[in-house]
Each structure stands twice: as structure tokens, then as C-alpha cells.
Input
Amino acid sequence: MAILDVFKVSFRTFFNPKAWIGTTNLRATTGVIWGITKGLFVAPEAERTETFEDAIDRLHLKKEELEKRKNTFLTYSVLFVMLAGFSFATSFVLALQYHSFYGWLFSILVTLLFLSQAFRYHFWFFQIKHRKLGCTFQEWWQGKPNSEGKKS
Output
């Protein structure tokens, strides 16, 4: 009887599409990807609410240090815009001269990455320049922050 259990053959032995596709692993991987993606679009809650001056006091920053950081952020922003321009030009060289679609696509993605970093540093520069924390994208786009009492 024990020998028959070892050589037990069933319909699933030869036909098991769930095992072929790997549905358990696929379901687990999809859950992980969904958790990561969902975390990207949920803004984290602020740990503290403070004004720009409160933050300067808390971090013990001097006016010279603040001005130096502002200039550094502007320099980084300009650098990333120049790198984005170079990457954008390279993408068209790859597409037109070398006929490489994947090279073009990769260069466009790198360009977007550089532009996102340029935005990040310019946004920080904008907040220091206008001495206001918590600026919105619309305020940055318009080039002037709203006053504390106004909401757009």
C-alpha cells in the first residue's frame, strides 16, 4: 500500500495550469507592487506644523547658511536642467542616427528623472526665497506664494 502512495498519479500530475503560471507567486508579487504603488500616491501626514522662522530657530540656521543653501539649491536645479537637455538631445541622436527605440525610451526616462530632480531643488529654493514652508505646486508655478490668510 505504501508503494502505491509514492507513485500516486492523478489528473493534476499532468495538467496543472495554476502551477504552470505560478498563480500563488503572481498573486503575492501583485500584492507587493500594489502596496508600493499605493504608497506613492498617498501624501504623508506632517509631523509638525511650523512657520519658516520656527524651522530656522529649531534647526539653528544662520542667515548666511540659509543664503548658501538657497544658492546651492538653485545651482543644483540649473545643473539638472542642463543634464536633462543633454539627455533629451542624446535621445534623438539614438533614435535618428542609431535607430534605437529602447535607447530613445531610456534617454527620455532619464530626462524625466533629471527634470524631477530639477523641480525638487528649485521648489526648495523657492520656499527659502519666499521664506514660506508648505508652498503648493500652483504657487511655485505662478512664481509667488499666497499670503497666509488667502487660499487658492
